[in-house]
Amino acid sequence: MTDIKSMTIDELKKLMTTLGDKPFRAKQIYSWLHEHLVTSYDEMTNLSKSLREKLKEYPVTALKMVDVQTSRIDGTQKYLFRLSDGNVIESVLMRYKHGNSVCISSQVGCRMGCRFCASTIGGLTRCLLPSEMLDQIYRIQALTGERVSNVVVMGTGEPLDNYENLLRFIHILTEEGGLHISQRNLTVSTCGLVPKIYDLAKEKLQMTLALSLHAPNDVKRRELMPIANKYSMDEVLEACRYYFKETGRRITFEYSLVAGVNDSDEDARELSGRIRDMNCHVNLIPVNPIKERSFVRSTRQAVENFKIKLEKCGINVTIRREMGSDIDGACGQLRKSYMEKQKARSDMRIYSATDVGQKRKMNQDYVFATADPVGNLPNLFVVADGMGGHNAGDMHPLMRLHLWWRKSGRMRILIR
């Protein structure tokens, strides 16, 4: 099925010709989709009714918001969106003095397997379409009524593992006729797919490339990032040098600090020796602990000491400002918690049996269940058994369940 929101203007012109309409209509449709951010053809008021009816054969990608969390500390908002196939992805809106930044996902899940990342737990489901990447930005801008000026492709997924869709997304996002966000206001992160870094460099785009480095040598990097078993640090850094040579854009190195793993003075010295000849910037990130991993974030003092060591070697360094620390702010955490809750609901199976029709004329057994939390309990399953043939046997279990319902305020009788 044609994904109309992922089409270029030239492709839309060909579609108009196929539909027997004028090519100039392509620019109007493109503007409605990417500038006015509409989600249905009925909103395209300068198109004829007959053309709008023809276009309805080509559904418009429009993500549905499932959840949003807002930080009470800094106003950061984390969104959970549902795709047309039922999968969910997350995006983050961060408000700065210089403008609003949105961090988007490029895949549903991830297959890179980085040890400290929640988004890779469960592996890769599929790549996102260009339209699904774009619509994360469009929905956030439409929901907030605030202009998005910066975009980072640093959410769930490895962007360069979705290379062709990423390129199309970049062109539609940055070219005239849509939001026209400057390429210099776009950052794409990668764990280090070396051949794709060379390919991206040849595109000569003016965006920032952020490499997830996270270690000063191959041994430690392999412990944290399985991709390091395929590409050595020397290969990755050489690809980054080539990217700078072709684009003139300074490289950003992302470095997540894990206590006792990669945050020592020796680690800082070794890292400095590897990158001091490069036009680069290091972004230090205290790792976000996740329950499936044993990693612990470095202390504030250790982070500051690491920064000072790098600066003494002439390297530009910042410590990432923590945004939305009171919500599921780390990559993949909101999606993961949502999926766990959905799994808890789907895993609850209720079986009940009664001897009604055998020894009694009416059912005296009741089953009561919820997958929602009740007090300190994550869910609740209650069976109220009848009183063995007593004429009032059904009254006591039913009254007991109604009492549970009134106390919890959230209970539902699923089987009676």
Description:
Helices cover 33% and strands 20% of the residues. It is built from twelve helices and 15 strands. Helix 4 packs across helix 5. 36% of the residues are buried. The model is unreliable at 349-353 and 410-416 (pLDDT under 50).
Describe the secondary structure blueprint for this structure.
Blueprint: H1 9-18, H2 25-34, H3 49-55, E1 64-70, E2 77-82, E3 88-96, E4 99-103, E5 107-109, E6 124-127, H4 130-144, E7 148-153, H5 163-174, E8 186-190, H6 194-202, E9 208-212, H7 218-224, H8 233-247, E10 251-257, H9 265-275, E11 280-286, H10 300-312, E12 316-319, H11 333-347, E13 366-370, E14 380-384, H12 395-408, E15 412-415
Parallel strand pairs: 4-7, 7-8, 8-9, 9-10, 10-11, 11-12
Antiparallel strand pairs: 1-2, 2-3, 3-4, 5-6, 13-14, 13-15
Helix pairs in contact: 1-2, 4-5, 6-8, 9-10
Q: Mean of residue pLDDT?
A: 87
Spatially, the strands of the biggest sheet line up as: 1-2-3-4-7-8-9-10-11-12
Distance between the termini: 45 Å
Q: Tally of extended strands?
A: 15
Main sheet record: 10 strands, mixed
Catalogue the unreliable spans: 349-353, 410-416
> How many helical elements?
12
